[in-house]
Amino acid sequence: MSHAVTAAPDKPLVVLNQRTIWLIFGALMASMFLSSLDQTIVGTAMPTIVGELNGVEHQGWVITAYILAIAIAMPLYGKFGDLYGRRWPFLVAVGLFVVASLGGGMAQSFEALVAWRAVQGLGGGGLMILSQAIIADIIPASDRGKYMGPMGALFGISAVAGPLLGGWLTDGPGWRWTFWINVPIGIAAWAIAYVALKLPSHRSNRPTDWGGILTMALGTTGIVLLTSWESLGNDGYDWSDPTLLGLLVGTAVVVGLFVLIENRVSEPLIPLRLFKNRTFTITTLIGLVLGMGMFSAMSMLPTFLQMSAGAGVTESGLLMLPMMAGVMLTSIVSGFAIAKTGRYKMYPVVGLAVTILGMIWLTRLEGGMSLWLFGAMIFVLGAGMGLIMQTIVLAVQNSVDPHELGTATSSNNFFREIGAAVGTAAFTTVFTSRLGDNLADVFSGLPAGSVPAGGGSGLTPQIVEQLPEPLRSGVVDAFADSLAPAFWYLVPLVVVGLVLALFLKEVTLSNEAGMVARGEAVVEGSGAPEGDAEVVVTADAAAGSDGPDDRDRTDILDR
């Protein structure tokens, strides 16, 4: 299969020089900071938020709604970016994120907060996917490792700043500012992107895969609802319950329809032929299992610190610093090493092994433990994750047709986010069900007046601190005893990822940026194609080959 792309005579080519690349990269960094900050800023404020809005038993939905919306939005942004260009979808994503941040800060009920978090996810999904695709558009895979370092540092900085800022705002002006602070940052990011992202836009007469969009959204939602069944207030998985049974059957039918539709339409939302590509399949499965483990672990650690270790809101943010230091260190070092050597397989293999060790160590969490020991545990976890996340995206983008950079990137990330949504929902279900039983034991036999309002659902760190002994110690132990064993459920998933990584085959990194390969740009000094020049892209990788031909995906032929 090949694609012939001739530059339109009325559309000047983008000239990629170092100044243009850094200008576009700077705009992406500003917007990526906005999205990554919001994934962590709410974490330290979570116990206070759900306690005030009486949603402790359903707190996983504040995270799950965001991740679910990101998962649904990702394939849309990836596909539409490939078809119509990435500039306007990117600006829409920033705008959605800003509006949702304003609404989230004004939420007066737990349900309203979850709804606004979902809208935030619709914007956040675009920010992440389009940023990754645009970087692949302007920077060759062989040089992209140099930029992975600053990207890793950005995620590390935002991951550090998020918990710290979230804690400071919660202790100071209030948790609502953890949402409102995104508004001025988002407006600035939108303005920078509007000026700097001078990317080509184009029309497409290809049909929209409405059936795929609908069944993807319904199937994704059904999967998450099934895994969140207990956290939605249901008493276990009673398969005689017609609602639960109907949800299971309906989800299975919708997923089957999605597969059928994607195999029949001419322009599928997620082309299933991508799975014929060995690199795409392996990295996608790694992302799936990593998402199930990584986000689950990160989502509940601040809660543990506040409720079990007796840390304040701001202090719990500070105590997450070692994890982010691990992510920053290994992502920066591995990025520069990949750019220098062109080899990348060893990093996800080592990273997954280190992540397994970190998760096993986290099963030893207990109330009142040494915070130095806790810091060492999460540093190991972060170091493992830093070796994996950017590397598998690079591997995917390097193995597919340049015309499908957005679709392949979003499809790969989609399955990672599905894993994150399912993993977080399942993990919080295990945690909250154990917590409910443990708290019931703590409060059993106490006079009605001595039990906190709302029982366990109304607990906040401040209320826990004010409880008399031995009631306070009982609550602290209940949180620790509920969280630590739950990590054992994640270890087998990451082991599967490690085994998959051993079968990952390295493909020589391309020396050509995506827009150059598609005939939309030229590198300064190389000269633009003459009038009848044609860019021919051989798509063996997209068709499923992982052999030597993959190494020369793009040839420029001057007729």
TrEMBL record:
Keyword line: Cell membrane, Membrane, Transmembrane, Transmembrane helix, Transport
Protein localization: Cell membrane
Biased composition, class Basic and acidic residues, residue ranges: 548-559
Membrane topology category: Multi-pass membrane protein
GO cellular component, one term: plasma membrane
Major facilitator superfamily (MFS) profile domain residues: 24-509
Protease keyword on record: no
Residues passing through the membrane, by range: 21-41, 61-78, 90-108, 114-135, 147-165, 177-197, 209-229, 244-261, 282-305, 317-339, 346-365, 371-396, 417-436, 486-504
One Pfam short name: MFS_1
InterPro entries in alphabetical order: EmrB-like, MFS, MFS_dom, MFS_trans_sf, Tet-R_TetA/multi-R_MdtG-like
Region described as Disordered: 539-559
GO function terms (MF aspect): transmembrane transporter activity
Protein family according to the UniProt entry: Belongs to the major facilitator superfamily. TCR/Tet family.
Protein name: Drug resistance transporter, EmrB/QacA subfamily
Source organism of this protein record: Promicromonospora thailandica
